[in-house]
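Appendix B, record 7
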Amino acid sequence: MRRSAWTAGAAVLAALSLGVAACGGGDDGGDSEGSKNATTPPAEAKQGGKLTVLWTGDVDHIDCGQTYYQMGNFICNATQKQLYSYKPDDGENMVPDLAEGDPQISEDNKTVTIKIKQGVKYSPPYEKEVTAADVKYAIERGFFSSVASGFTASYYSDLEGAKVGVKPGTKISGIETPDDYTLVLKFKRPVAGVMASGALAYPMTAPVPEEYAKEFDAETPSTYGEHQLATGPYMISNDAEGNATGYEPGKRIHLVRNPNWDKSKDFKPAYLDEIENVQGNDDPGVASRRILTGESMINGDFAPLPENLKDALDNRPEQIKTIPGGGGRWVAMNTKIKPFDDINVRKAVLAGFDRNALLLTRGGKAVGDVATHILPPGMAGFEEAGGMKGQGLDFISEDGSPLPEVSAEYFKKAGYSSGKYEGTEPLLMVGSNAGVAKNTAEVAKEQFEKMGFKVQLRLVQHQTMYTRYCNTPSAKVAICPNVGWIRDFSDGQTMLSPTFAGKNILEQGNSNWPQLDVPEINEAIDRAELLPKEERPAAWAEIDRMVMEQAPLVPWIWDKTPLIQSANVNGVATESNGYWSLEWTSLK
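Structure tokens (predicted):
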């Protein structure tokens, strides 16, 4: 849908959204019928065939050791055997992938020992057997200045001898390999239990052989992604020298079968023979219609427009599935840039924001519920943090409606007697340039302008918005309207530490978009990271409240992701990533 102004199209979009919601989930956050079978593989599946995935943009990084993006994981889950992974219908309990069995935890909770499978080989042209030393190097390279992995910095910095931003080739003393198939991780703090709860199930633990990758990692940024080796069922098509000819940034990611993949050493069925990820589909409405009326296609990095959802729900219900997104979307305000360095200005913004207007840009209640805080439904600590109703803060409504009188009072506390912002400086807002995300950015701009702000909106490709602007503090972006976060694994730490801990403000790959650095919050996060499992939900719920009291962002949706497929596709989604799973999807 093209839009010129929210005010002109609000009534039509609202009516459409109500029509969609009537066919989908209710107001209580329950899932639609489509979500009940989204993660269930069919009883019988056809082997073979080619699937086409339509994308608007690209991944943030094609290198699985760098990516910190849902669609990066979407590709890497198909091409790599990380230490642990998940079955589609269980996003909480990790299962061995490259690992031979469960991780072994020491009594002091500071050491994790993992045995890896023997006989796993790399894709051509390398074709050697994977060893524990390759996993050691994969973790180490995450700390290299040339790789700068946000996930590694967030969850592995407690390794003995680990430092962020080191020169390529730097070793970590806390990673040992006593033999070719044993990996030992030693930590400075007792965090091993949390590591074993999910931080070992991420693409950055996929093996990378040093002798092959070191020349690429010596470049800044690393070019290993364009020459990467695969250990999973699929690989990016390449030439005899290992150049990833199947990856053309912004155009395509072409996956073919990895001839060295051994099905007996994997739990993933990998039915498809070939997967063509076609990028550059800038009109999600057109792309959605192609998928719904065509053959052998699914959606990639975009959500169907509301009218596409309504068409699918009314006329093709078997071609749409929804899955809890495991997270939410936010409008982030940079607390290092005036006027958002003033907490009263931030509270005024939250109070004055019509969060339902943002929800409608994605399709209304069919695709999510109005968020009132950070931890999403279905996650440990959600109910303790206030559940759907929220925490009772006076500047954020339960139902998503604006509170203009409260907003005016907070603006007055900030020194603006008119009850609106009175500054004249333009504030840079960088958003996504395609589909519903573009609509969201435009509506967010209008919301700020209603409160007196002057906003300079720059719309760019989705991955560019993250990598060049919102993830890079030096870009000095004041407002990021299209950022969102899904859990890395089922623990409150994954929603609150990478995004709001001062220690996780990074020069590159930053996901603490508000650059929040509050000593009391930082100390609470450090304490919570060391707590036993039974004490963690309440602790992270309290941190959720502390973050919301700082008003660093506008939380506006807890996602239920809509997924669409052609009639001849048996699409399977995965709870762990909140999206399609290429390894389990098949053609009818």
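Remarks on this record: Confidence is low (pLDDT under 50) at residues 1-35. The longest strand covers residues 320-333.
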